[in-house]
Amino acid sequence: MSDTRIDIDGLIGRLRTCLPDTGETFKLHEPRFAQAEHNYVMDCLETNWVSYGGDYVKKFEAELARRCGVAHAIAVSSGTVALQLCVMLAGVRPGDEVLLPSFTFVATANAVVHAGGIPHFIDIDEATLGLDPDRLTRHLEEIARPGRGGLENRLTGRRIAALMPVHIFGHPVAMDPLLAIARRHGLAVIEDAAEAIGSTYKGRPCGSLAPLAGLSFNGNKVVTTGGGGAVLTSDDAIAARLRHLTTTAKLPHAWRFMHDEVGYNFRMPNINAALGLGQMQALDAALAAKRRLWQAYRAAFQGCNGVRVFGETAEACSNHWLVALVLDTHSDGELDAVLEAVNAAGIGARPAWTPMHLLPMFATSPRMDLAVTERLARQVMNVPSSPFLAAAS
Ligand SMILES: *Cc1c(COP(=O)(O)O)cnc(C)c1O
Fold first, then answer.
1. Is-contact 170 322, C-beta < 8 A?
2. Starting at the edge strand that comes first in sequence, how are the strands of the sheet with 380-383 ordered?
3. Is 329 close to ligand 1, i.e. is its CB under 6 Å away?
4. Ligand 1, atom 9: closest residue by C-alpha
5. Residue 152, beta-bridge partner list
6. Paired strand residues for 247
7. pLDDT, tens digit, for every residue of 195-254?
8. Contact 107, 216 (CB under 8 A)
9. Measured in angstroms, how far is the CA atom of residue 55 from the centroid of ligand 1?
10. Ligand 1: distance of its center to the CA of 14 in Å?
11. How many of the other CB atoms lie within 10 Å of CB of 156?
12. pTM higher than 0.90 for the full model?
């Protein structure tokens, strides 16, 4: 397994120069809680408002909307259901195809299926790790044609209804070219901003770049509520519809239980939102620390043979959720040898996710040639990225 051309000891040495000299082992991404989170959660316990009533959900939603530059944030129980709701509200009907990267966390593709759609996998651009607009254009020219209900996949006969870009590891995708493609073909756009709170594209916040976006507040994300997510939109009617659907489609009434359709219980409990509100108040400090940590990695690997630290494009500002090294590795075995040694040295590292089209449940999903995805899956390694690992400014 040690047939790699990477100098593994050298790599570990460089990683160590970026991390605190405490002898502890480093996880990939861990939360930290301040006094605010303790106070807000205690307030929930002391007032008994731990569940679906109480003020923290409203306060957290207001803070999210303000921060992400949208009119409405609807807090829900996970990022996965946030994306499922986005797909449903974008007008994707059962049996429609949704274009998305294969290089993503499984939740993106799962959400499409939960909403009745069929994932259709598109390759990525090495410069952003997100959907490649040029290759998407050529793929659509090859396989799609205008149909009765919109764009149609000539190979499957199904409607292609939506495009779902993902900001991988917090790095904004080339959104403007993707929006132009969607406009040209009449596709709805859903932004998977689960990893990208605080990131900006041409100065605009991720989460505000498409009519519908999903965030995640899982424990390993930049902002956590324990578990949770949010849908972001600036459309008043869609926001009202989301609130209705996620609260069992209950009609407002002081005591009567009247529901006008089969709704969902996707709400975020108050106690989780209390955690989230405190986390939002620490977001700017966390982003600054994560940027310093990324810069330390960049400096440490300057001029290093066979290893580079993934960086930003000129139009993007990443939240650097997970710092990614791109290695000059050419097989899974080679990457595994590096991962094994780095983890054995107490430095939490992992590969990018197994590409979606290589998972059994998506093996027969429609897709284009995914050469860049498959190559990068053998080359990308995430390294410890918690904000508190950064040296003080
Ligand atoms: C974390 C994440 C999600 C949502 O995950 P949950 O665990 O359900 O909150 C969706 N998409 C991507 C790309 C993610 O990283």
1. yes
2. 307-309, 323-327, 380-383, 350-351
3. no
4. 79
5. 145, 159
6. 265
7. 999 999 999 999 999 999 999 999 999 999 999 999 999 999 999 999 999 999 999 999
8. yes
9. 25
10. 30
11. 14
12. yes
